[in-house]
Structures are given as structure tokens and as C-alpha cells.
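Internal tracking record. Fields below are filled automatically when a chain is submitted to the structure queue. Please do not edit lines marked as system-generated. If the sequence contains nonstandard residues, flag them in the REMARKS field before resubmitting.
Queue: standard
Priority: normal
Entity type: single polypeptide chain
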Amino acid sequence: MNISLPFTKNKQQTQPVPQKSAAITTLERGMVSLVDVLAPSSIEVDFRYIRVGDRFYTTLFVISYPRFVSPNWLAPIIDYDHTLDISMFCYPTSSADILHDLRRKIAEMEATIASDEEQGKLVDPAVPAALEDAVALQDELVKGIERFFQFSFYITVSSETLDNLQETAKHLQATLASLLLTAKTATLQTEEGFKSTVPLGQDRLFITRNMDTTSLASTFPFTSAVLTQNKGVLYGVNQQNGSLIIFDRFSLENANEVVLGKSGAGKSYLIKLEVMRQFMFGTEIIVIDPEGEYENLAKTLGGEVITFSPDSTTKINPFDLSQLYEEGENELGLKILSLHGLLKIIMGTLDIESEAILDRALVETYRQKGITPDPATQKRDPPLMEDLYKTLLSMEAKKASDMALRMEKFIKGSAAGILNQPSNFDITNQLTIFSIKNLEDDLRPVAMHIILDFVWTRVKKTLKKRLLILDEAWYMMKYEDSASFIYSIAKRARKYYLGLTTATQDVEDFLKTDYGKAVLTNSSIQILMKQGTAEVDLVSDVFYLSQQEKQLLLTAGVGDGLFFAGRNHVAVKVLAAPFEHDLITSNPEEIIKKRARAVAEAAAEAEVPLKPPQSIQPPQKPQMPKPAENTLYNADTAAPKRASWSKPQED
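SYSTEM-GENERATED OUTPUT FOLLOWS
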């Protein structure tokens, strides 16, 4: 029986929760939920592994740690070249309980040592070491310097095949052993191990070991996702945590850089941005520009643009020598090897006999100018391409005449002005652009080889901080000898304080050649930008990318990608200031707008404003006459008159 008293506040009755009707429940059952989207098609639990969908997983747990550790001692595991899921759990414990256990443990170890000494036995070296550590820890706990924790460390490895999973797990255990860590597989607990390393924050294994505050702090993964030095050039922003990616490429083991990405991914944008920022640090920069993308930047920064074409006044003689003697190097021999590569581009494939004839002809051509392997003779004027042509014609072998015929286009034909003249300039500007956009596609590899050889010859003459940028390197990587030449420069660049930047959009051809892979290996910085579906698998195999990183490269925007430096890599977003973007953009739409804006501004500056007719000018407020000096102010003369309007007269 419910009694309602007049002096008490009526309590609100709890409304019953409406029950879902059978129709609604059936409707919801037929809808797709988030769990349906995320859940794998199947989960198979074995005593050695767990299979989720099409991937196999196994979990390792660490049971013992080294006696001494240093900061960042887990870096080899954090930077491991395979995808790992790592979980660490920390459990604070009561210092009073630990001190009680420590005192008992110390007493046991002291008794063990004393007993062995009384009986004349050899004391186990591990016991005094453990006693020393326990006493030191006891003192620090009593003073409050340290606290005590229980620490769990789990690593889950995944792979697409069971054999590969076992091999990777075995290799990981060996890596852990090199750090004096003992790891075991979570046999019969694979499900608990898997759940302990998914981002749920649940320790299902609960296999812990003792650790103090200092040791626990050293497990922090300092190398997780930060690529920042105290000095250098800003490359972009870390997409994961927003930190700046600042690097001095000349502080690494070599200053070489490779940029790979499909057309329109932002390769040239990134490189031009780096050119601007390196320019501010006084670095001399040389660019081989096949498409004329760097000309506007050079003009703005006061650089020099050298247009390379048959009609240009600038000439390069590919037979030039550096005139620099280095112990153990044959300068003439190296130059002849470089000329072999150039002439194979011009002549096409040569058989063994033709190569031997060409080598004899090159040696004879230099000898006719008095130049031999003796460094003293190499300061004489070098021969020209025409001299080699004449030497081949004078030889009796029929193949020599055939090779001379293949060269004739560059001696007497349409391309005669490219490489048959003495060199008539030198690199004197801080920013030099070699533009070959006016050449036909079949002549560009020839021009790029000549320019690259010319630059390399000048680089060896004077030691200076330089960058050499080879854009659209695929023009040269198609030819084995040119690719070999690029590799030799990449290998020796550090010796001459040079950083080589190689950029290409033909990723597949670049990575499938041995020389392409060698250039990549000899580059401390590698930047991967957006890739096509045909190339991303090859790139993933070469760089050991995870599935998420592959997806990032497939969907990356302009200027986004992966930045590799040494053993670390992060996702990068290239950012430019507005004035930088205005100088380096190659977007046709933006360029058209910029030109239209410049024309409008020029027209506005040139336009002379028209003065309005006197009859339609607004009335001016009458000015009060200023009193004469040393006279009294006269109010009558200062009285204002009424302003009047006049109607414009018609003609």
C-alpha cells in the first residue's frame, strides 16, 4: 500500500525501460555493424600460433634481462626490419613489502657464501654479484631514490605464411639474445599472448620480472618516431606526432639522397624546396634539369641557367681531364672508361671486338695530343670528338669505320654543336642549372652523361660543400654504362664533400637494376613518395614496408611520403612557406594564375589616374585666412562665405 504524506517530496517513479520489440531486434540483426566490418573471417588457435584471417601470429615473452642497461638499449627491437606489436606493462609495488623480501634474500645469499667458504667450496660468481645488486637496491629503496616495479614485455610477430613466421620468430629471438634478453614463445597461451599485444591495455599473460625506476626508464623507446637533429635543413613535418624533420645530410655516413615517386607526387617540389634551404647555408648547388623546372628558381636566387642545345653558345668537351693527380688513381684511364659509357649511348650496343677497337682509338686520340698516363702530360689541350672520329676512319678494321659512321651525326650532322667544341665556361655561381629541355628525348641521355662527367671533373678539382641533383635519372639508368657511372659518383662523392641527389619516376626500372640498388644502398637518405599499384609491391619488398606503409604510399597526397634516414623512417608531409611555394610550384593552374596576377599588377602600375573635371569636384570648405604677423585677429575678414554649386556647362 502506497501512502503519500503531504509534507514530503513526491519521489519520481522510475520509468520502466522499454523492451525492444522482436521486429526491431530482427531488423538490427540484419544490419551491418562496426564489429562486422572489423572482425576477421575466421580465427584459428593453435598451441604454437594463432591465425587471424590470412595472417599467422605468435607471441614472445621476455623472462630475463641483462644486469646493466644503457639508455635506448631497446633500439634494435624498436627499429627491427619486420612489423612487430610490442607491449610493456608496469605494476608499482609496495616498497615495504619489497624491503622485507630483500632483507630475507640478502640473508640467504650471505649464508650461502659463508657456507661455501667454510666448506672450502668455490663460491658461484653469480651469488656475490646478485648480493651486491640487492644491497645497492636496498639502500636506494630505503633512501627513497628508487621505487620497485613488476615489468612485463611481450612481442607479437606476424607473417603471411607459417614457415616465414617461424623463421622471423627465430631471428627475433637471436636479436633479443644479442641484447642479453631471454625470450620464450607463449606455447599453449597463444590467444592470451595475442590479446596482450593488441591495443586493449590488458595483460593476459602476466609474466613479470622485477625492475627498479632507473632500469624501467631506460626501456622507453626514444627512437620511436622522431627524426630531428640540432642543425640542418627542414624537410617537412612528421605525420605521426607533428615533430619537425630536420636533418643535416652532410653529418651522415654519406650525403647522398634518393627520391622515388610517380609523376605528380611532388618529387621536384621537395627537391626545389631543399635547394632553397641549402642555398641559405652557402652550399654550392648544381642541377641537371631535363624539364626546365628549376629555371625560375635560379633566376630568383641569382643563379646561372646554362641551356644545353646544338645552338647554344655554351660548349662542353667530354674529353676534358681534371688535371688533378691523386695517389693510386689513373686519371686518363678513368676518363677513357667514362668515354666508353658515353660512346655506347651514341653508338648503341658494341660487341667485344668493337669495344677493343674503341679503346685503342681513344688511347691513340689522346696520344696524338701528347697526353699519356703521365700526369705531367695531362695539362695539355685535350682532343675533341672529331679527333676520335678521324682516328677511327684511319684504322683498317671495318668495324672502326662502322663506329665512325654512327658518330657522324655528332660530328657533321644535326647534333654537331653538342659535343665537338672545346669547353668555354666554368662553374662559378653558387646555383648552376644545366637545362636540356630543348633537346630531343634521344639526345637527353647523351647530354646528361656529358654534363655529369663535366661536373664530376670540376668537383674533383676543388674541395667545397656541394649538392649535385640529377633529376629524372631514369634517362641515364636505362644504359648500363651510365648507371655504372652514377654509382661510381655515389660511392666516391663523400670524399669530395659532395651530396648526390637522384630522383626518378621510373621506380621499377631503377630498383630492378643492380646499379640502381647500389645507388640506393649508398644513399643515407631515401624518400618514398606516392607510388602506383604496379610499383608499390616492389618498393615494399626492397624497403620492408608494412601493410599500413604500403597503403600510405598508394593514397599519399602531393608532398606526402616516407622519409628514411639510417635505420629510422617516418611518414613525412612536405610543407613550404607561401613565398617558397610561389617560387617552386609547377602546378600549371597556379602558374597561369600567377602570370595573370603579374600582368594585372604591371598594368595597374602603368595606368595613370584621370583627374575629374573641375565642375564636378565636391565643394571645398573655405579656408580661414591666417592673420598677419604682429596684427590683431579680424573676425570680419575671417568670416566664412557660403559655398555654392555651379552647374556644368554644356558644350
